[in-house]
Amino acid sequence: MSGSSEERLPVIRVGLYGPAKSGKTTFRKVFFGQEDSREYIPSEKVEVFETVRTFFQVKEGRKIPVETYKLALIDTPGREEFTNERLVGLSKCVGIILFYDANDPVSPQLLGKMVEEEVIGGGLIQNIVALVVVGTRKDLGINKEAVIVGQEVADRLTREIRNLWNYEVPHLLINAYNADEVTRVIEITESLLMTFRPPQKLIESLSASNILQAAIAPEAAPFVQPLIEIPVIGEEEREKEQKTETVEVATPREKSAMGAEGATKAKYKLIPSSKAWDLLRNMASKYPEIEKILLIAATPGGDIYTAFYPGEPTLENIPENLVSLIVALGKSLRNVLVEEDMGDLKYAILHGTNKSIIYTKLKEGRGIMVVKTRKKPSEELIKFLVE
Hints:
With 387 residues, the chain is α/β, with parallel strands linked by helices. Helix content is 39%, strand content 24%. The protein folds into two domains: 3-214, P-loop containing nucleotide triphosphate hydrolases (Rossmann fold), CATH 3.40.50; 235-386, Beta-Lactamase (2-Layer Sandwich). It has 13 helices and 14 strands. Helix 4 links the parallel strand 4 (95-101) and strand 5. Helix 4 packs parallel to helix 5 (144-165) and helix 5 (144-165) crosses helix 8. The longest helix has 22 residues, at 144-165.
């Protein structure tokens, strides 16, 4: 392409943004095929690097060129003393790729602070079409807490960008020295700029949620024995059961307050594992459509344990009416499965005119989880729950 032709191409500016040592410059050098000594040299000024690209869309198995343009990557310094330089560099950008070190929990915290003060607080968000959050150094191993905080940053940006462009901000994990992964991040950003829609297949290949799920899901509920079958009962028996069925519960904390022999009556118990409660909070943080989550498991002795979101994990806060309804729903669903010879229950989704409920059985008989959403649940949430 001649120089004069290039000059007539539209220029799209995308900022590389994040705290120091988050991988911005390495990402840029790998994308442009520049040498990188792997020696950290902090940036002290805004640098602009341009390349001509063509955006393609795939239709009926064929790649069709849509737009040829000049991509300008704006590499910004990450240290606090260069705030003004960053803001000037980002002022004409229509996309921002936000970086943090996925091995260092402090790095995404710094990114979150920068986002609140500069991207959102500084009014930049109104001019941005594409936002992508990227955790780097995946090849060195992932720090779970760092990734969780990185997801919180993505969720915060989603609440802002959804009102403007109606999509969820992708949260990706990459090795910034891997040219293929770097290119995929650019392609995801490019798709948001050109179509205003996240390219789900590309996102899935780098999605931080896969790593996050692997970190929390395997240990999510090893807290009780497998769920026991509860026989179906009639209305009269159910009323009798609700009036009389209680179990004696005395947690160590309650014993110290009430005396060694003291106990308080409660219909249900709290799941003692903190991992279960962390799982529910992490889910609510990742999927903003969630209104309530209830985790229920039962022991062979008949005790029913619960964890829930929102609310503090105390006996007084157990949503007993909701637990009772879900237990009754489980009985009815199992009865339908038996009567209709449908096999084992995996999940059920109930859509109302205003809200939805997803009922799913956890793997290996660990219990059931019920999620209430403010609207029709996203495909990502359904996939997380049923797979």
